[in-house]
Amino acid sequence: MSSRTDRVLARPPVSRHRAVAVGVVVALALVGVAVIAVRDLAVTQGWAAGEPWLDAGVRGLDGLEPTAGVLAVATAVGVLGLLLVLAGLLPARRRHVPAAGAEHLWSTPAAVAEVTRGAVDRSQGVVAARVARASRGRVALDVVTHDGSSGAPAVETARELGSAAGTALGARRVDVRTVQEEIA
Q: For 138, phi and psi rounded to 5 degrees?
């Protein structure tokens, strides 16, 4: 492999950056300003009828005095700008967890939870297993067993299998709880 490939594989997968949504909104606002500017150009050149909108807007702002409302709006815009700069500088969140034994294997928390659920669901004595919660470090499973007790050998086996499957793919903690079977 090339050194560029090695560098790309060494980085963890990340989600979309926080500033992408803000960038799209700002880009759409700039497109709107550009449309108004082209319309005003067409009006001033005589290609279209009407009055330029930008001239009227500037004339409307001419002569305004600084007031408390203007100061509040300017302060809010300044704070919003600082927050947007901060959002642009912060790194993107990692949404995947690295596997314990493999160098370049990354999984989403939902995928780790489903593999763990599958291992627990296939263990002897388990009627059904359901993912209760899946996060980057923890997977919680609800298990229904034949006898319904939480200390049965089936539950202990399910805990061992779930813990082995989950920690192999990067979960730090796997919780297996017994729940009562819902009768419909």
A: -140, 140
Q: pLDDT for 104-135, tens place per residue? A: 788 888 888 999 999 888 888 888 889 998 88
Whose tokens are 């909108």? That residue is 53
Are residue 107 and residue 167 in the same domain, yes or no? Answer: yes
pLDDT exceeds cutoff 80 at 102 = no
pTM strictly above 0.90: no
pLDDT of residue 22: 83
Name the DSSP letter for residue 130: E
Q: Is there a single domain that holds both residue 70 and residue 108?
A: no
Q: Is the residue at 123 inside a domain? A: yes
User: Does 84 share its domain with 123?
Assistant: no
Q: Which residues contact 111 (CB under 8 A, 6 or more apart)?
A: 169
Residue 72 domain boundaries: 17-89
In tens, the pLDDT along 13-38 reads 777 777 788 888 889 999 999 999 99
Determine the 3-state secondary structure of 128 from DSSP: strand
169 and 105 within one domain = yes
Neighbouring-strand partners of residue 144: 128
Tokens of 166: 């989950």
For the chain, the domain total comes to 2
